[in-house]
Amino acid sequence: MAWIKTIAPNDATGMLGRVYESARKRAGKVFNILRLQSLRPEVLSSSTRLYAELMHATRGGLTRVQREMIATVVSRANNCHY
């Protein structure tokens, strides 16, 4: 768990609660990478929208599989399990 102060999913309200609920629906849980941004829900919301646009866009010349492979390779190169 992060040593950075975060807001737990069960304690989230308002915008943060909505972002967390969306994460739960999408992934089955709220990953720590999202919780790290919990003190700034507006930034977290923008971050998740940017991620969705980058990874799920139908334009730009790359398929979803190619985008996921690039993300996987970069995460591995950075020794990051996300």
Would you mind describing this structure in some detail?
- There is one protein chain.
- This protein has 82 residues and is mainly alpha-helical.
- The protein has one domain.
- It is 59% helix and 0% strand.
- It is built from 4 helices and no strands.
- It has helices spanning 14-27, 32-35, 41-56, 64-77.
- It is globular.
- The two termini are 14 Å apart.
- The mean pLDDT is 92.
Q: Averaging pLDDT over every residue, what do you get?
A: 92
Shape descriptor reads globular
Order of helices and strands: HHHH
Structural class: mainly alpha
Given the structure, what is the number of helices?
A: 4
Largest sheet: none
Radius of gyration: 14 Å
Distance between the termini: 14 Å
Number of domains: 1
- Work out the number of β strands: 0
Supply database-style keywords:
82 residues; mainly alpha; 4 helices; globular
How would you summarize what this structure contains?
With 82 residues, the protein is mainly α.
